[in-house]
Amino acid sequence: MAPNPRIKQAFRSMEEIGISKEKVKPVLKKLLKLYDKNWELIESENYRVLADAIFEEDDSKVPEQEADKNSDVEDIEEEGSVPDEVVRPLKRRRLRKKYDQESCSHGNDSSNVAGTFFKKPKVEEDELPPAPLQQQSLQCNVGNIGTESLPTLIGPVSSRPTSPAPVSPLHGGRNKGKQTVEHSPLAVQERPKPNSHSSQMDVSHKGKEPISPHVASSRNGLERASLALCIKDPAPEPGISPKKSVPVTHALVIPKEEPITDVIPGDEIPIAVIHPDSLSERGLSVGDFSIAKLNWQEPSASRSERHSSCDLATAPEEVPSSLEIASTPLGEVKVSLSYNSALGRSNFQLPSVDELRELMEQRCLRSYKLIDPNFDVFKVLGDMCECILELATSSSNKLQEVNVIPALDVLKKSPARNAVSNSENGCLLARMLNESFNVQCSTIGCGDNVGGKELVVVPQHELTPDELRWLHDASDITRGEEKVKISWVNENSKDFPPPFQYISKNLVFQNAHVRFCLFGIGDESCCQTCFGDCLLSQQLCTCSRHSGGNFVYTSAGVLKEDFLEECITMTRDPQRQCLLSCVECPLERSKKDDVLEPCKGHLKRNVIKECWNKCGCNKRCGNRVVQRGVNYKLQVFLTPDGKGWGLRTLEKLPKGAFVCEFVGEILTISELYTRNREKHASPVLLDAYWGLTGVSMDEEALCLDATCYGNVARFINHRCFDANLIEIPVEVESPDLHYYHLAFFTTREVEALEELTWDYGLDFGDLDHPVKQFQCRCGSTFCRNMKRSTSKPVRTTVLDDGLIRHDHQMN
Ligand SMILES: C[S@@+](CC[C@H](N)C(=O)[O-])C[C@H]1O[C@@H](n2cnc3c(N)ncnc32)[C@H](O)[C@@H]1O
């Protein structure tokens, strides 16, 4: 019999991307069987579904299923007998990427445009039968993450244009820099059913096409099948073709080894976040069709709860709200949300998708600190269900949520729960009258009415012993927030460190929207084709382009000498300093004076670009240092020389070592000034790019305030000029110059027990500056505040190298 030309063409197409016939044959057989020989599905998008299935086969090592004895299959046998080039397994992932690129470039679908591909699929009302009243469940088909034509439940919808906004510590004349983190709204397809107590959101389909794994998986050249798995078949719906039964060879793949740190864009799922290897680590079955079930009320316990059957049973009425997720290697994810706690509520009415998206955005931005690489998409899905419930049962309290920062979990759990606020000497603990854990941290804000919930300042002496013990755990001031414990000691008095909420990652406050989505991060700024450790790679890593093609870190994890020296010189040497001036300085503008003062300039700095989730390298890549957090033994101590509390190292630190990041609340400058009626001791401007890029809006000028929420860096005291730490802007998540991390590195070797200091960059004469003025006791020979710290005369000398030196005149 003449060979089937369609089979020949399939082999040829796969051959073009380096996949041998031996590999194609069994998979093609399975697909033909699975799709009832529907060749259109297999051929669409240049055999996308076939390629994906082959890659999945490799990933999951699914045993070949028994061959079908039909004519197509026989043809395949014939064609497949032709010997073919062996494709090495190591090449597989690259082939896959290659295929993705090629498929993308000549695929049938129009390519996605950032921020514009959220398209609501057309779903006919009559296709959506109301669910039984008692069930009150919502089902979402989340298919093909990343498609223009296939909006996804978890997918960026809009990406804010990169707005160059700066960063720098709140020093006059200092810079730091950074980027906007764009949050991507959930692209959830709305299914209208105002009068129904159940809702279904099908997001894996274009228009009215049947909801089936096959269709979904073949849609887009950019989706990656390892993210999407077919799940349980939902109840048959009129107008929607029934699903095929899912073969037991399909595996549940949950991309989580390298967590997805944001809503996943429709057209971009970074390879880096989908490590098949991680499946075994997570104890997921590969080779079996599986379902992940999550009850977000106890997320950690329930995350491990997985089912190996194809049965996505309706949640029993007595169980709390829950979600279940399952997917197939063919590119479809099914998410089923059930809010049983809505049962019996007469006012239950599903919110619109836009309402849901908006509320979810707010939650994600404020609750999940999206810059956190450990961002957990499961928690987001759980929250989404809660949002639906909230919107569905009460539309009146929406605004209240929007303006309030949900407290950190640790606050919720702690005996001294519910709030921190600021006073003259730092934070006083505040309790909220309402048990709900909404918190607004505001300098003057204690006692403020927050979203209808009142915060009450509790003076420190009224704290219970439990609360004091919690606040002042001498063995670990971080209360477990860092990888290492950081103790505190007071060898001089019985005072405790000021109460504050320890956080290890920056927290977004109010209007300071720090938004990003993976989609918004251009490929050109990430090393997507790297793998392993970029420092060891022969090929040029895109991330290193930011520093002229060289990495700034050595394999020992410290800064390279030349880069560090350049940073130090750019900061200290007046001849090398470059001040960038804004046309309209956000700092000056935020002062709201009648006359806008000219910009005082922001120090130009070197910036470090670290690899991140969208990069192809692994987490142990040597170009990831700051994101790993504190690593050395540090201690908070009461300084003996009147500077208050300080930070010191308990071990010798090499030159160029990363010590810690400056972590705090991310605020707009306006917000800082609003809360800053009493000047703050710990604000830092993120102004590294101000003047370079222009800052068009107040809202885009960000700073960090560690007064109420902060990490150990809030204890680092100032030293004029020759401090042993230097702060360097570090781009991790996105290079849009609006937001960045501020990391401290040693400028020299530091001995054990030496105090760690950095130069705040203060102009001690600038009384207008938002940083609280203090009489400097740094003890440096080069102190810029000598006149205030001593009444003795000071001799100022300009040294040969251009540095300025102040000498005390001894009597
Ligand atoms: C970021 S905090 C540092 C931690 C602070 N010492 C504490 O006890 O919490 C900055 C404040 O520390 C004090 N400080 C920092 N460096 C100082 C210095 N060189 N001389 C005197 N006081 C200093 C000032 O009160 C300043 O407002």
From TrEMBL:
Subcellular location: Chromosome
Domain SET intervals: 632-761
Compositionally biased residues, Basic and acidic residues: 60-72
Boundaries of every Post-SET domain copy: 772-788
Primary subcellular site in the record, as a coarse category: nucleus
Residue ranges with Acidic residues bias: 73-82
Domain of life: Eukaryota
Database matches in Gene3D superfamilies: Histone-lysine N methyltransferase , C-terminal domain-like (1.10.8.850), SET domain (2.170.270.10)
Organism: Hibiscus sabdariffa (roselle)
Protein name: Inactive histone-lysine N-methyltransferase SUVR2
Any Pfam family the entry gives: WIYLD
PROSITE patterns, sorted: POST_SET, SAM_MT43_3, SET
SUPFAM superfamilies from the UniProt entry: SET domain (SSF82199)
Record keywords: Chromosome, Methyltransferase, S-adenosyl-L-methionine, Transferase
PANTHER family (alphabetical): INACTIVE HISTONE-LYSINE N-METHYLTRANSFERASE SUVR1-RELATED
Entry-linked InterPro entries: Post-SET_dom, Pre-SET_dom, SET_dom, SET_dom_sf, SUVR4/1/2, WIYLD_dom_sf, WIYLD_domain
Residue stretches of biased makeup (Polar residues): 104-114
Ranges for region Disordered: 58-115, 151-219
